[in-house]
Amino acid sequence: MLWTQRHAVGVLGLGIIGSRVAAVLRAKGFRVYVWNRSPKPEPNFLGSPAEVAGAARTIQVFVSDEAALDATIKLLTPGIGRGHTVLLHPTVDPATVRRAASAIQATGAAVLEAPFTGSRIAAENAQLVYYIGGDTETLDRARPILEASSKSIVELGGLGDAAVFKIATNLITASTVQALGEAVALVRAAGLDPSLLPSALAQNAARSGAVDLKLPAILANDFPPHFSLRNMAKDMRLAEALASGADLPLLRAVRAGLDAGVADGWGEEDFSVLARRLAPKTDPKPAASEDSASA
User: Which one of 12, 106, 230, 258 has the fewest beta carbons within 10 angstroms of its own beta carbon?
Assistant: First the structure.
């Protein structure tokens, strides 16, 4: 019998990423048990996190924010103990990671911090990148499960440390989208065709994965959610809190744009909708709502 066939995995949180990770794990032969705060028609859907822990020794947690993580861990801890490993995937502040980890470790279970980069397409294609905070022994046990949904695993220190790097990289990504929106607006203001901008960027040092993924949506003014504006705004609030008074003017500007977009009712659209505020006024296409977890 293959290792995957005899190993059960629990997935808590079935938003944009969690649902796709669960599907990838099933496709690769894992037995997968799932839970979500609002019930979903998923195979092996169980009634609580503690029930999932009764069926699986490794638990992946894909919820969206601090409050959801605290609530989920409170429901999970009665069902876990020695022999369980809990993988924490939300992008939250380091103190929240350490608080959740402490509650998990008090039961005798092991815990690993593993926020990820990559959105819907990456999750569907097992191309996430996990940022790891925690000890090597726990990572070694969890590695086959993490490898099943990822292209890379990056070790970044102790519990809570990976959160800082994840929030920092999200600042770069959000800033890139702001810059793309302004570049499109600049080209349009000069009376030129912004659809030529991808050609101009193709061999330019400014080209990046974020540019390739987000520029087409900005040009089309169509923002189906890969990582929601609401979640990116949350991450930039975390970034501002982590800055501890450092003068970060770009962060302030990006956060203001994100918060304004949420106030405009765009929170469930992809965060690249940030660029809409710079575009000529048109009737935006409505985005289908789907819970999202991380960029």
Answer: 106
Q: Is the dihedral of CA 51, 55, 61, 63 positive or negative?
A: negative
- Cα(79)–Cα(61) distance, rounded to whole angstroms? 14
Residue 181 C-beta-side C-alpha neighbours within 13 Å:
21
CATH of domain 3-159: 3.40.50.720
Residue 151: what are its φ and ψ, rounded to 5°?
Answer: -105, -15
- Structural contact between residues 179 and 154, judged by C-beta atoms closer than 8 angstroms: no
Q: Which residues contact 153 (CB under 8 A, 6 or more apart)?
A: 129, 130, 132, 139, 143, 146, 147
Residue ranges per domain, the chain? 3-159, 162-278
* pTM across the whole model: 0.88
Distances (CA, A) of 80 to 25, 72, 85, 114, 116: 21, 13, 9, 19, 24
Q: Supply the CATH classification number for the domain 162-278.
A: 1.10.1040.10
Considering only CA atoms, give the Rg of the chain: 20
